[in-house]
Amino acid sequence: MSVMVDIRSVHKSFGPLEVLKGIDLSVRAGEVTVVLGPSGSGKSTLLRTINHLEKVDRGAVSVDGTLIGYRRVGDRLHELPEREVLKQRTRIGFVFQNFHLFPHLTVVENVVEAPVSALKRPREQAVRDARRLLERVGLADKADAYPKQLSGGQQQRVAIARALALEPKLLLFDEPTSALDPELVGEVLDVIRDLARQGTTMIVVTHEIGFAREVADTVVFMADGRIVEQGPPGQVLDAPREERTRAFLSKVL
Amino acid sequence: MSSDTTLTKAPAAPDDLPVHADELPIVPQRRLGQWTAAAAVLVLLGLSVTSVLRNRAFQWDVVADYFTSDSVLRGLWLTLWLTAVVMVLGFALGTLLAAARLSANPVLRAVSWGYVWLFRSIPILVQLLLWFNIGALYPHLFGVRTVDLFTPIAVAIIGLTLHEAAYAAEVVRGGILSVDRGQVEAAQALGLSRWRRWWRIVLPQAMRAIVPPAGNMLIGTLKGTSIVSVIAVQDLLFSVQLVYHRTYQVIPLLMVATVWYTVVTSVLSVGQYYVEKRYARGTGAAR
Ligand SMILES: Nc1ncnc2c1ncn2[C@@H]1O[C@H](COP(=O)(O)OP(=O)(O)OP(=O)(O)O)[C@@H](O)[C@H]1O
Ligand SMILES: [Mg+2]
Asked: Which UniProt keywords apply (chain B) (predicted)?
């Protein structure tokens, strides 16, 4: 299978703090990668470098064979103008821990915003597509509500529909269920599970070990800005080779 | 006072609840202090109103005579459009200053900060007089005599706008800062252009925090324009002053101006209510 995401020796510091210390990772098309790791290990930062919300200091990220945020000229990487980066981002969906829906827009307006303004889709067509997507996440009847009128689980499902509206090649989830009440976690995981079944390429940062075991093709364990261990869930979760992985799992399980 | 349950062995205290607590009537507390205060305030208010209405020195008939006279209406009109122009230009400049202050460019940030510092420091009256006398510094500008360029009305617009912009910049900046940073990130992640992020995502949300102080400023500016009477711009205040310098009916003519300012302020307050409602969309509590 072809490689969808290729991350090569990515380094990233915030001031004196080195958050990513050389990450290499490749994700094949149609597969689900779950990223685990203690707080502060750099999971969010890594995810954000993939759609260039965070610039890398060294190394490179490519998605579907295209370098993200840079253009290679000879043996140099030139920063792309924002316009180009924005275009690249429309091919990559991002779902945030705190949803970040636009509170002044209705649910359907949230979903059609990007297709209409970034992809120049005709509004009518975008609305039709949006309603279909909302149906898919089980929220057809909430199209005209405002985000504040929805539960956290419903808001996160809208956020997923909003990301899907761009028909991305890749979906990134940053702890999509961490801000939710326990009884609402299931409905969001169901949607993600559904997407996995349909062969959507996804990278999911989560603390839901059960979900990882069930859905992941690859589990990546990060600590302290490095990938400590990666492999199929049966290996990393049930027979971890590294001491740090074992210590982490014994704490979250 | 005995407990209704036979299970209870301890002697019943007065606060022990009977089984059917929902049948106990509730007697609201008597708010004697509140009633007295309200009555006292109403009496004082009534006394003041009758004293104003019955004091012949107010000369309400003179007020009525001049209330809609041509010169007063012309003054009112100037006050209204001057307020509108100053508000629009002031907020346009203020928004640019706010954008500069929040930009990544250190030079722009410093200049914006310096502007706000300077124009908030100079009293508006001093500023008007300085612009009015600028001919003393630069007798000729762009090949014309400066006094021809800086007419009283031009000075009024320039001075008030520069003053307004310093305050508007802070109001707009506060509004933008009140918008969650995650909103911009979500918009960036969706590939929305810089322009679209600003107009569609940030500004509408910032408006919720901008409108109330902006409404305050609008009303302040309406009355604040009366300061231009010192440079002989014929606004509402200057118009009534022209009359009473002639007729010596000072109080009734000041009442003409007062009532007009009050009427316009009331209309503006109602307008503000509707604008606030417009920008409160989507802020309702969870269902
Ligand atoms: N914009 C920033 N400026 C400075 N430091 C940052 C910034 N973003 C992240 N950090 C720091 O980088 C480190 C890694 O952060 P990151 O959010 O990637 O961790 P994480 O693995 O996602 O943790 P969590 O599980 O708590 O979300 C943390 O120490 C964090 O404080
Ligand atoms: Mg994180």
From this structure: Amino-acid transport, Cell membrane, Membrane, Transmembrane, Transmembrane helix, Transport
Torsion of CA A163, A167, A168, A172, to 10 degrees: 30
With H, G, I as helix, E, B as strand and everything else as coil, classify residue A230. strand
Q: A108: exposed, middle or buried (C-beta count within 10 Å: 0-12, 13-18, 19+)?
A: buried
Give the per-residue pLDDT at B143: 81
Question: What range defines the domain where residue B126 resides?
Answer: 80-233
> B190–A114: do the CB atoms touch at under 8 Å?
yes
Residue A19: strand, helix, or coil = strand
The answer to whether position B194 is within a domain reads yes
The pLDDT tens digits of the residues spanning B85-95 come to 999 999 999 99
**Residues A38/A248, Cβ–Cβ less than 8 Å:** yes
Is residue A132 scored above 70 in pLDDT?
yes
C-alpha neighbours within 13 Å on the C-beta side of residue A93 = 27
Q: What is the pLDDT of residue B1?
A: 43
The nearest alpha carbon in chain B to A144 belongs to: B282
Contact A229, A240 (CB under 8 A): yes
Q: How far is the centre of ligand 1, averaged over its atoms, from the C-alpha of A188 (Å)?
A: 24
Angstrom CA distances, B87 to A170, B75, B203, B220, stand at 48, 18, 18, 10
DSSP state of B248: -
Would you say residue B2 lies in a domain? no
CB atoms within 10 A of CB B54: 8
CB contact under 8 A, A118 and B190: yes
Q: How far is the CA of B203 from the centre of ligand 2 (A)?
A: 28
* Sole residue written with tokens 């009537």: B25
Q: Which ipTM value was assigned to this complex?
A: 0.94
CATH of the domain at B109: 1.10.3720.10
Nearest CA distance, B190 vs chain A (angstrom): 6
pLDDT digits (tens, 9 = 90+) for B1-28: 444 545 555 555 567 777 777 778 888 8
Ligand 1 atom at minimal distance to the Cα of residue A47: 18
Ranges of H-type helices in A10-147: 43-50, 82-89, 107-117, 123-136
Spatial neighbors of B70 by CB under 8 A, at least 6 apart, are: none
Q: Describe the strand order of the beta sheet including A17-28 as a list of residue ranges.
A: A17-28, A3-14, A58-63, A66-67
CB-based contact B284 A146, cutoff 8 Å: yes
Q: State the total domains in chain B.
A: 1
pLDDT greater at residue B16 or residue A104: A104
Ligand 1 site, residue A39, Cβ cutoff 6 A:
yes
Nearest to B188 among A89, A104, A146 (CB): A89
Contact residues, chain B, for A117 at CB < 8 Å: 192-193, 196, 200
Residue nearest to atom 27 of ligand 1 (CA): A39
pLDDT tens string B34-62: 899 999 999 999 999 998 888 888 888 88
pTM of the model: 0.82
Q: Measured between CA atoms, how close is A170 to chain B, in angstroms?
A: 12
Whose CA is closest to atom 24 on ligand 1? A39
Domain contains B31: no
